[in-house]
Amino acid sequence: MSEQTLTIIKPDAVAAGNAGKILAHLEGEGFRILGLKRLHLSRDQARAFYEVHRERPFYDSLVEFMTSGPVMAAALERDDAVAGLRRVMGATNPEEADEGTIRALYASSIEKNSIHGSLSPENAALELAFFFSRAELIGA
Ligand code: ATP
Ligand code: MG
To answer: Which residue's CA is minimally distant from atom 19 of ligand 1?
Structure first.
C-alpha cells in the first residue's frame, strides 16, 4: 500500500556532494519525492528531532554532527515506503550494510552514515510533520 516516509540526507553526504546521487538512487528504487528542503538544523532542532536518543551515549556527538552543515530533508512516497527505505539505506553501521545499499555506498562511519529514515509509519507521520506542513504535502 502506498505510504509516506521521511528521509534526511545527512551533513556528511551533503558536504561530499552526494545528495543528488542519493536522491537519484531513491527515485531508482521507486520513491517519489513529494517534498524536498535544504536546511541547516539548529542545535535545538537537532536535539528535538533525536529526542528519543537523548539517553544514549552518542546523543551529544550526534547533535553536533547533525548541526555541522546543511542537510536535505525529503518526504517520500512508495508502496511499503517505511520498511522499503530502511532496506535501501542498509544497516546503521556501514561495515554491516549490504552491498549496494546507500550506507554501503556513501557512509563513512556508524555516525556519519549519510542518511536517515523513519522507523515506523507512526514515527514517519511525526517526522514528516517536523519538516513539512500538511499544506506542503497535499496533492504533491
Ligand atoms: P537513523 O535514525 O538516522 O535513520 P538508524 O535508525 O539506523 O539511523 P539509530 O539507532 O536510530 O540508527 O541512531 C540514530 C543515528 O545515531 C544513527 O543513524 C547514527 O548517525 C547515530 N548513531 C547510532 N549509533 C551510534 C553509535 N554507536 N555511535 C555513534 N553514532 C551512532
Ligand atoms: Mg533511527
So the answer is: 111
List, for residues 28-60, the tens digit of each pLDDT value.
Answer: 999 999 999 999 999 999 999 999 999 999 999
Q: How do the domains of the chain map onto residue ranges?
A: 2-133
Q: What is the DSSP letter of 6?
A: E
116 flagged as catalytic: yes
Q: Which residue has the cell 539505506?
A: 89
Residue 36 phi/psi, 5-degree rounding, is -150, 125
Among the listed residues 25, 40, 53, 116, the single catalytic one is 116
Residues with CB under 6 A from ligand 1: 53, 58, 62, 92, 110-111, 113, 116-117, 119
User: Does CATH number 3.30.70.141 belong to domain 2-133?
Assistant: yes
Provide the whole-model pTM.
0.97
Write out the three cell numbers for 103. Answer: 550506507
